[in-house]
């Protein structure tokens, strides 16, 4: 538990103190994201006041995460686990894909960034390589970082062949990263929601470590390979995101950009996969799912009926269009996320108690 606290503390300090340094650097060089402007055919919420705000703040989140995770291991003089390194790989790899997108938005002033197909290909390359690596490298108990079984609170009886496992992991990673990316549309919204999800995975992984099968086979043990290291990783990600939120909350001094949203999505997906809680993800990342469903519903509804379900998708922009203040939307969405995360953790604990 000491390492978890060290990891969270280091990442929080790095992000909290490092983000203003990044803001000054980006402002000095004029690295600001392009803002979408309404036209006769397409109307967007009024965000003219955000023009000139630096982007690529995800670099501060990644920096805090890496310092927190590896710093905790240096303090304890222990080698990082395969599970932890794989989570780092997925997070940084997806952050690099997001960085390419931010580059076009900032340097080329192309508000849409990388083409959707190109971004999906980059995500697929990182996700599939992560999937392949995660079903290898067994420990002395024969446990791989990821299991071939679909999981809810632990592995279920549904076991997939390697090819299907890779496709399943690719789907989870792509869905989660794009869900966080869609939610990152208002100041502090995605960062605050991510802190709750990552905090939940910190608690969940600490619990799995205390009840792990490596300490002896018993009815309620969790067959997770490196739960303590996953807790250290989750704490580092939560701390970095929390420190960044100080500067990202309304009115934001910096945006996380796709560098931040894709890397946060990757860290959340990695934790769900490696902690054997894949089907619990829709609750622990519930707000991201709701926002994604609003986009799917908007597209499908328009194609089937010719009418839009919302004034604008994703969902938070709909509420902007009907006159809600930005901070009102963000806080209420945070409350929804908090309730969903609490319910997910309650179900996780109830499953352990009833056995």
Mean pLDDT: 90
Query: Using DSSP, what is the number of strands?
Result: 2
Question: Given the C-alpha coordinates, what overall shape results?
Answer: globular
Largest sheet: 2 strands, antiparallel
Helix % is 55-70%
Number of helices: 12
- Low-confidence parts lasting 5 or more residues at pLDDT below 50? none
From the helix content, strand content and strand pairing, which structural class follows? mainly alpha
Description:
The chain is an all-alpha fold. The chain has one domain. The protein is 66% helix and 2% strand. The protein has 12 helices and 2 strands. The chain has helices at residues 2-28, 58-76, 82-107, 116-134, 162-183, 189-210, 227-248, 257-274, 281-284, 286-305, 315-321, 326-354; strands at residues 149-151, 155-159. Strands 1-2 form a two-stranded antiparallel sheet. Helix 1 (2-28) packs antiparallel against helix 2 (58-76).
């Amino acid at each position: 538990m000491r390492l978890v606290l060290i990891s969270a503390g280091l990442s929080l300090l790095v992000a909290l103190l490092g983000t203003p340094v990044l803001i000054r650097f980006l402002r000095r060089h004029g690295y600001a994201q392009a803002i979408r402007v309404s036209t006769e055919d397409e109307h967007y919420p009024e965000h003219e006041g955000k023009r000139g705000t630096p982007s690529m703040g995800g670099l501060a989140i990644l920096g805090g995460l890496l310092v927190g995770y590896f710093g905790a291991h240096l303090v304890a003089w222990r080698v990082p686990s395969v599970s932890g390194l794989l989570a780092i790989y997925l997070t940084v790899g997806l952050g690099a894909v997001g960085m390419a997108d931010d580059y076009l938005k900032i340097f080329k002033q192309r508000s849409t960034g990388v083409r959707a197909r190109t971004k999906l290909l980059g995500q697929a390359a990182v996700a599939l390589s992560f999937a392949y690596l995660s079903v290898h490298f067994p420990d002395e108990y024969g446990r791989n970082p990821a299991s071939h079984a679909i999981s809810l609170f632990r592995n279920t009886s549904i076991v997939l062949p390697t090819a299907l496992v890779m496709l399943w992991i690719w789907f989870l990673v792509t869905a989660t990263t794009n869900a966080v990316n869609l939610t990152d549309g208002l100041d502090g919204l995605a960062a605050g929601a991510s802190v709750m999800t990552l905090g939940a995975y910190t608690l969940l992984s600490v619990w799995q470590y205390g009840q792990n099968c490596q300490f002896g086979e018993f009815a309620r043990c969790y067959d997770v390979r490196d739960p303590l290291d996953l807790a250290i990783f989750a704490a580092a990600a939560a701390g970095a995101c929390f420190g960044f939120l100080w500067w990202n909350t309304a009115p934001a001094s910096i945006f996380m950009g796709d560098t931040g949203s894709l890397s946060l999505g990757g860290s959340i997906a990695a934790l769900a996969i490696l902690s054997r809680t894949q089907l619990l993800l829709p609750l622990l990342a519930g707000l991201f799912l709701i926002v994604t469903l609003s986009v799917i519903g908007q597209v499908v509804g328009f194609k089937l009926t010719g009418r839009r379900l919302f004034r604008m998708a994703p969902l938070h922009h709909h509420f902007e269009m009907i006159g809600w203040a930005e901070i009102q939307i963000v806080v209420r969405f945070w409350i929804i996320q908090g309730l969903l995360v609490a319910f997910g953790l309650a179900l996780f604990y109830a499953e352990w108690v009833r056995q």
